[in-house]
Amino acid sequence: VGKSRAESLGIDQDFIWVESNAEQLPFNDDVFDLYTIAYGIRNCTHIDKVLKEAYRVLKPGGRFMCLEFSEVPNPAVSYVYDKYSFDVIPVLGQLIAGDFESYKYLVEKHQKSSQIKKVLLI
User: 3-class secondary structure for the chain?
Assistant: First the structure.
């Protein structure tokens, strides 16, 4: 999806596109300033291996950025957060990207975030 969007915007020549297993990245150690993953770590089988690989390819002082949903401990805020997540985000996905189902799936999978949070804190 990202590659086709970059091509349609005429910016695909600025990237080297690589598809690989996040548990075994095809890069040398200490080569990247930034490693990002958004709404994808939840789909990884061995999150600990993915994190180890991410930090292996990061240069010393490099930044790891992970974007995921989280749990909200306050019940009132949690209610609003869930309503927004389940009722608004998929609609925005349809309006902006023409894809309701992917954004619905995205928020339905946020329950796994407590497991991710525990691994990230280790």
Answer: CHHHHHHHHCCHHHCCCCCCCCCCCCCCCCCEEEEEEECCHHHCCCHHHHHHHHHHHEEEEEEEEEECCCCCCCHHHHHHHHHHHHHHHHHHHHHHHCCHHHHHHHHHHHHHHHHHHHHHHC
